[in-house]
Amino acid sequence: MLICPKCGYSNELGRIFCHQCGAKLDLDKIKPTSGGRVVRRKGLWSVKRILDRLVWVVILALLVWGIYSIGQVPDIQPVKFTNAALLAAENKRLDLEQLLLRRKRNGAEFTMKLTAADLNVYLGSLGLEKRTNSGPAVVPITLQVELGDGTLKLNLLGIAKLGDALSKKIFISYTGVPTTENGRFEFRPVAAAIGQIPIHPKILQSTSLLQDYFGRLLSTLDHEKSLLDQLTSISVARDQIELKYQPKADAAKPSTR
Q1: Judgement on whether residues 133 and 221 belong to the same structural domain of the protein
Q2: pTM of the predicted model, to two decimals?
């Protein structure tokens, strides 16, 4: 209501002149009703709800994209090899073992070169370690090597299992720099990916999950690792990996007279 300043009559809202005396009403004294505040508050809450829903839509879209990207599996076929190719790969491993044995006797240096095909044939002939428990696991189908400029990439095609509830193909790549340091073979991880989702190097440095998994997967290669431990250097190019042994220089002998 709007009180007339002249006669004190209570006029309904919307009038300009007093209904009783005709005096002009002071419209500046009109106070908004509580209904107006409620309307504005509802409007503010509506904007907040819209923003909240947009955030949830973005999160849901990212989640769907992540699941889709993880599920992208390249067409990797297990390596097919002949008996001749398998024999050649095995002979190279035996040659490396013999060369390392002989160097203990005569201290001669040597260099051996291996291609990705050599490594893949040898890996394909091995039985990869498989977990048999009922918990979450990645059962390997095939593991293959890809050589780069200074890096070696392990490409794993497997089946992700969660008991009997989940069984889906999955692709994991693990890239590192093979090297020898202080008489030990090391594989320093620099990149990894699950499906099409890359894993940040800082995550690789802060967790050993992938390193432990591939370590268990290749646990049958302990003897080969002991051979690599004896090398002086390992260098990788796109077409081959070079293994080199170079004996340490003998300490200078004191002169005698």
Answers
A1: yes
A2: 0.69
CA-based angle 183:124:67, to the nearest 5? 95
Residue 24 lies in a domain: yes
For the chain, the domain total comes to: 2
Contacts of 72 (CB under 8 A, 6+ apart): 171, 195, 196
**Looking at residues 105-123, what average pLDDT do you find?**
84
pLDDT at 255 over 60: no
- Beta-carbon contacts of 229 under 8 Å, excluding residues fewer than 6 positions away, are 180, 183, 184, 185
Percent of all residues in the chain with a pLDDT value above 70, rounded to a whole number: 83
DSSP character string of 201-219: HHHHHH--HHHHHHHHHTG
91 three-class SS: helix
- Establish if 77 belongs to a structural domain: no
